[in-house]
Amino acid sequence: MFKYKLFFFAVLFSAIVNAQNISVAGVPNGLLLAQNTLINQCEFIRLPENSFQLESHRNSLLGNHFQFVQYHQNIPVYGATFKVNISNGQSVLSVFNNFQVITQKLSVPNAQDALPDANLTWFKQDNEWILVQRKLIKNNLGEATEQLLAIANQQILLERILDLNVAKDTLVRTKVFYPDPLTSAQKSYGENGLYKNNNGNDSPELTAELKDKFVNLSYENDSFFARSPYVIIRDLESPTQTVLKTKSANFNFTRSASQFRELNTLFHIEHFRTYLSQIGLPFTGMQPILVDPSAYSGQDQSRFSYSIDDPALYFGTGGVPDAEDADVILHEYTHYLNYFIAPNSVNGIERLAVEEANCDFMACMYSKAISTFNWRRIFNWDGFNEFWGGRDGNSAARYPTDVSSDFYRTSLIWSSMLNDISEDIGRDVLTKLLFQSVYSYANNMSMQQAVNLLVQADSALYNYANLSKMRVRLEERGFSVTGLPNQSKGDLGVNVLNSAAFAEGLSSLKIESKLGEKLRYTLCNIQGYVMQESDALLTQIEIKPNSLPSGMYFITISNEKGQLHSVRVVLNR
After folding, report:
1. Which terminus of the chain has a smaller tally of CB atoms within 10 A, N or C?
2. Residue 113 φ then ψ, to 5°
3. What is the pLDDT of residues 421-477, one digit of tens each?
4. Would you tell me how many other CB atoms lie within 10 Å of the CB of residue 103?
5. In which element (H, E) is residue 150 found?
């Protein structure tokens, strides 16, 4: 039998990187449009006393994001920012206008001369603009506070703590299964009459598999709380449990305590998110998710739900408690990651099968990174026992022969194929390709269409460096790999040479014109910062990997006629 991991999902849009989303000669694409948007919405900024400056620019797969600050008489206006988000297709996605309307020249007091080195800013008090001094002070813990002081008498007009975390995070030592007791012991469930659930009670062999690990907990008012930058533990549904809140620094719980499931969940999600950040997938903007590790009315089920105001994960305690198995934790959490980048996009049998398979694959990769023992078994502590049979990530199922109305069974085609591909191109690369392709997922999508998006992601991120290896695995499973675009597509014809060896840091990337023209180039990192650029026209562009850190790069190439071409490359050494 298949255990049905319940979930609720919700659609974003395709955000595959557009080839024109590049800085040219160090100027981010979209900056002119962002500036014009600001000027059109803030006519008063045209006055000679007023001005603005670009404070920050970020480049994402979606487009470019600009934040400007307002100045009056070359002095910043406190709290006055203007944020513009520009799509890859050069349209305004959204605007957040916090500029202050100033239509006349404000009076600058003579006191300014007495404070030549003061950090001055314009501040509106009682509907009147005054010039104040801005100070930053730190306590002995390094926590910063901002103060606005009256110039004349140094009276504090405003004080603000510069700390986005109301509750402080503290690293504590705890006990977890890593990733589960069967994997770390390299045993099968029930082997020699041991390694069983025992109605959730402790046993010497299971306690022996508890590993010392560190996890972040919130610390506030002399107490520790079960929440981290990624997870907030809540008692959301039965069975009712008392969520961890303690002044004690002892967190060595065994599996018979509900607090063990709380800390085990906190640790594995934080460990997974740390890995994703390390490979360039920070999932910026995601809020901590609510988690109930003792839920589902005691049933042997788990789910990700967004059907309430706040998305949440629920882990059942029937059979082997789900929150004891990192496979279950990572599977359900991956549903949340997918929802964050592609909500409302999971209708249809094959689309649901791909969803489940992607989550199973992330669980397999997480466990394999810890131990290769039975790594293709999905839920090997929670399943493969008297409660349910788990899932097999080593299936020989093929497309479309083994597609059925049971999307969990159909998912084995996709998850087993991904596990195969990971053996050829590695966890890091395939994880990035998979999440990039998810941005484009849609309702009623077929598995073949998911294959097309995976290949498209390899084009966008790696310039097809992994296609030859992936093609073998895709075709083994019955999928077709056809209709591939020309990788040198663009207004300016160029040949891109040696991208695969460059990606591994082995030798230089070379770019040359198909027509023998001389070229210039600018190389930017994913944040849009210029890392290299040519001072003169070149007959061949050569970029050496040893001078660059690992990451994704965008290269803008131009000829003497001003024609442009863009290339994405990845350095993955």
Report:
1. N
2. -65, -25
3. 999 999 999 999 999 888 888 777 889 989 988 988 888 788 788 999 999 999 999
4. 9
5. strand 144-150
Whether the Cβ atoms of residue 219 and residue 169 lie closer than 8 Å to each other? yes
Element (H, E) at 368: helix 349-370
Task: Identify the architecture of domain 169-341 in CATH.
Answer: Roll (3.10)
Other C-beta atoms lying within 10 Å of the C-beta of residue 48: 7
Q: Give how far Cα 260 sits from Cα of 45, 241, 265, 287, Å.
A: 57, 12, 9, 23
Topology given in CATH for the domain delimited by 111-161? Nuclear Transport Factor 2; Chain: A, (3.10.450)
DSSP state, residue 72 = E
- What does the alpha-carbon distance between residue 464 and residue 8 come to, in Å, rounded to a whole number? 34
Q: Establish whether the linkage from the previous residue to 179 is cis, with ω within 30° of 0.
A: yes
Q: Find all residues with CB under 8 Å of 559, minimum gap 6, and list them.
A: 492, 513, 517, 518, 519, 520
State how beta strands 231-233 and 289-295 pair: parallel
Higher pLDDT: 535 or 148? It is: 148
The first and second tokens of residue 147, run together, are: 């103060």
How many CB atoms are closer than 10 A to CB 33? Answer: 17
Cα distances from 432 to residues 192, 282, 346, 460, 570, in angstroms, run: 41, 11, 20, 11, 11
Cβ atoms of 7 and 303 closer than 8 Å: yes
Residue with tokens 């290949």: 455
Q: What is the pLDDT of residues 105-130, one digit of tens each?
A: 998 876 445 455 578 999 998 889 99
Q: Supply the mean pLDDT for the chain.
A: 85
Nearest to 434 by CA among 446, 451, 409: 451
Q: Are 372 and 419 in contact (CB under 8 A)?
A: no
Residue pair 247/241 in contact (Cβ under 8 Å)? The answer is no
Mean of pLDDT values over 158-179: 72
What stretch of H or E contains 470? helix 467-476
pTM across the whole model? 0.62
Residue with tokens 């049933």: 299
Residue labelled with tokens 């990997």: 545
Distance CA 311, CA 303 (A): 11
The secondary structure of 280-318, three-state, reads CCCCCCCCCEEEEEEEHHHCCCEEEECCCCCCEEEEECC
pLDDT tens, residue by residue, 230-255:
999 999 999 999 999 999 888 999 99
Domain residue ranges of the chain, discontinuous segments joined by +: 111-161, 169-341, 494-571
Q: What is the pLDDT of residues 210-220, one digit of tens each?
A: 999 999 999 98
**Per-residue exposure over 341-357, b if at least 16 CB sit within 10 Å of its own CB, e if not:** bbeebbebbbbbbbbbb
- Cα separation, 317 vs 180, in Å, equals 16
Dist. CA 255–CA 477, nearest whole Å: 40
Count CB-CB contacts under 10 A for residue 254.
Answer: 14
CB atoms within 10 A of CB 178: 21
Give the contacts of 189 (CB within 8 A, at least 6 positions apart): 182, 195, 196, 380, 381, 384, 385
The CATH superfamily label for domain 494-571 reads Immunoglobulins (2.60.40.10)
